[in-house]
Amino acid sequence: MHARVAAVGGNWKMNLDLAACRTLAGSIASAARAETFGCEITLFPPYPYLPAVESQLRGTSVRLGAQDLCERPNGAMTGEVSAAMLVDVGVTTVIVGHSERRHIRGEHDALVAAKLDAALSAGLQAVLCVGERLEDREAGRTLDVVLAQIDAATASITAGRFSGITLAYEPVWAIGTGLTASPEDAQPVHAALRAWTRDRFGALAAEALRIEYGGSVKASLSADLIAQPDIDGFLVGGASLSADEFLRIVRSVEQSSLSTAP
Ligand code: 13P
User: Fold this and answer.
1) What is the pLDDT of residues 193-218, one digit of tens each?
2) Residue 178 CA, closest ligand 1 atom number
3) What is the C-alpha separation between 179 and 142, in angstroms, rounded?
């Protein structure tokens, strides 16, 4: 049984317009009013649509997330958005270190660590993303890469603040490619991340840590992935743009929790 409450995030990335965001959030909010989800759901719309999505989600259990934040609290940082601004508009959770920011925007480990610190300091929950590129996997360096990423990002994080973090293992070769990691690919990486956490922050922190899988997650594959002992949910990209598909993934997570309950 998963001792942790599973979590499913919908990372909408730079997609949709205002009307489509309202419709998609409204559909998920309606489902959340009609049924009790056995997992935590967070939607991550683009920045400008946060208030519109917040008003759709208000009064439901669905949480509002942001896709990124600035590491600085305020000031001359044209185009950036601070943690406090996110809190101000109702955001509870923020993605940090997504591979698209690491590899397309060139965010290095020190910046990821600073963003993580800024998020946790503001009282936000953080979804810290790690993941290897195809060449890393082919060279047998998957664990070296992901453990170095978590190590660098959390270097200045105390055990008390670590509880504000959810990890997302997102192999770069599986993101947006239609190639989903198999349970056999993903589970050892999740287990290694949990073992690393046990060594660094202790057994309780490791047991409480949620580790989501992300990378071309679809409803047809999610049940097999969530059945793995160290996979505690999903960070969904493309499939989260369809309410039906996203809710099918959410329900597969719930069913797994039920079917594995003692
Ligand atoms: P896809 O599900 O579109 O592969 O995206 C995964 C992801 O990057 C979620 O953050």
Assistant:
1) 999 999 999 999 999 999 999 999 99
2) 4
3) 16
